[in-house]
């Protein structure tokens, strides 16, 4: 069993299938040395996952790795960026080869799928946690930001919402379902969301603002509203719910509330000016992603929810790691 | 007291004096969006510091911040890169405003000194730790790597070695000195090393290989030897020791051993072909850094130590977080 930091790094992280031409120097020196294409800007995002806060210590390391990288790639997707590189800082109490092997399996499978090269990082001793920094390219001036939305723009989300929260409730034993296959599907959706990379790229020049849903739709949409200086109306009966979520939560109102607050979905929420609405469907059809219009921006501040044409006053909270 | 993750980030990290023109979009969106100068390559390094492993939980947060950023900037220095941006992932058990205020003071003071802009990161709940990813620029093809050293090249180190280990021994109570001012100086050197940014830049085109001393000279030099396929002779009586280290450890042999193994020094170790030796002094004089030749590369593998002309067989170990 390897007990030396450098042996561990060499053994598990120095070998990978991805070998990008824009990586002049990768793992093994003081820094990675990288080439950014002329005409592109660099998009950079950092996310930490801490055992006990973001995942259970006993969680399958394959899934933890997928979730960690997917959540970070999702931030690139939200900018319309093309992923290129990732740095990994891994802290663990002691060298655990079985855990590392599983982690690498999940990590490199997703990294290879998106042609992302691991360019470096750090391995340290301490309570289990990991921090990833992903980097990607976006054509000069074309990044999808949070501040371009205008009153009248339509609000869209990709995929379906709520499954991640349902899977987490099952994981935590807060709720149970009789159907084991249903439970497994929802838990899998909690861990194994796919970042909407191609959808984000397809929305460049079409969406006026975009972000990924990591803290719940109402919480995340709030960031667009604040940065863009607008209000929103959401029609909750239009929220896209999966068949599995409807089976998990047959009460339609409660299911909608799950969809509004479910964090770690890694679907995109984006806004589209009226003139671009026709382009959305075409652009996303090419990447096999369905988007649903769930509301519209208005002058003012805040979010108003409508259910079947009636304003509703649901008390909802987004996910906040530090909230009581 | 702010208890919301977003409030904390906004309050402590959204305001800084550095405002670089190459940062198109900084904190507050899914990604930072950045411009890399044409003709430059990007140098990227990631380092984690974990409470209990890399610093004591009760350590002054001003010093922890300095150490975290300095150690990461030191990796850029070792490549000859010019620092530009930093991402910060901060994990803490609960929002601690006094700690955050101290941390920001130390962090931004050093960031401003090197014109480094904080471009984003993550704030999460969990055991105290921080991970930084720094990025900088280096002219195309000019990065100082670990693999260009050749037999016959001379081995240099900047500054003095050993003070960091002495400061740590005092901090941990493994040793004491009567002179309180001496103790304070050595502890300060443990926490507050200055990354050799200008020296690294000055050595581009002069040094054949370089790295920064984070795990101890013998351990770090080993990386150059392995990557470059050479052996080294070090003349331990030529190691640059501070006056304070000599007072801390009057035994010359023990002082040399401290200098050989002291980690977290953040001095540069570099190799220079005979033809460039004259250029070293001139280049470094411009940035006020002294470098000392401590040995030479030879064909073969491994490091041989000489003390006053005699080979010595000291058993030394570099710092390894995972070693028993």
From TrEMBL, chains A, B:
Top class in the EC scheme: transferase
Residues where Mg(2+) 2 binds: 47, 75
Residue span(s) of domain PurM-like N-terminal: 28-138
Residues given in the record as Mg(2+) 4 binding sites: 30, 45, 75
Binding-site residues for Mg(2+) 1, renumbered to this chain: 46-47, 122
A Pfam family this chain is assigned to: AIRS_C
Catalytic reaction(s) noted: thiamine phosphate + ATP = thiamine diphosphate + ADP
Residues the entry annotates as binding substrate: 54, 264, 319
One annotated GO molecular function: ATP binding
Sequence similarity: Belongs to the thiamine-monophosphate kinase family.
Stated name of the protein: Thiamine-monophosphate kinase
Source organism (scientific name): Photobacterium aphoticum
């Amino acid at each position: 069993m390897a007990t030396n930091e450098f042996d561990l790094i060499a053994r598990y992280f120095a070998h990978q299938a991805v070998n990008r031409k824009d990586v002049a120097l990768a793992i093994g020196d003081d820094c990675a040395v990288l080439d950014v294409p002329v005409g592109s800007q660099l998009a950079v995002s950092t996310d930490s996952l801490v055992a006990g806060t973001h995942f259970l210590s006993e969680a399958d390391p394959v899934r933890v790795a997928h979730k960690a990288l997917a959540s970070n790639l999702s931030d690139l997707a939200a900018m319309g960026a093309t992923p290129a590189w990732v740095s990994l800082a891994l802290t663990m109490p002691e060298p655990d080869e079985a855990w590392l092997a599983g982690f690498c399996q999940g990590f490199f499978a997703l990294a290879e799928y998106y042609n992302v090269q691991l360019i470096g990082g750090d391995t340290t001793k301490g309570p289990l946690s990991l921090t990833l920094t992903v980097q990607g390219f976006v054509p000069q001036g074309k990044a999808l930001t949070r501040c371009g939305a205008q009153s009248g723009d339509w609000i869209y989300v990709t995929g379906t919402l709520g499954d991640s929260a349902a899977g987490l409730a099952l994981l935590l034993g807060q709720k149970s379902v009789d159907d084991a296959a249903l439970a497994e599907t929802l838990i899998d959706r909690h861990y194994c969301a796919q970042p909407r990379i191609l959808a984000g790229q397809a929305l460049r020049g079409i969406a006026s603002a975009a972000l990924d849903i990591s803290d719940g739709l109402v919480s995340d949409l709030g960031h667009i509203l604040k940065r863009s200086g607008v209000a929103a109306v959401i029609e909750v009966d239009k929220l896209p719910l999966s068949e599995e979520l409807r089976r998990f939560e047959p009460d339609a109102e409660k299911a909608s509330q799950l969809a509004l607050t479910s964090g770690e979905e890694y679907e995109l929420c984006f806004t589209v000016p009226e003139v671009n609405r026709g382009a959305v469907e075409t652009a996303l059809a090419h990447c096999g992603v369905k988007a649903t219009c769930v509301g519209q921006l208005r002058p003012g501040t805040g979010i108003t929810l409508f259910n079947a044409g009636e304003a509703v006053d649901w008390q909802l909270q987004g996910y906040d790691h530090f909230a009581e």
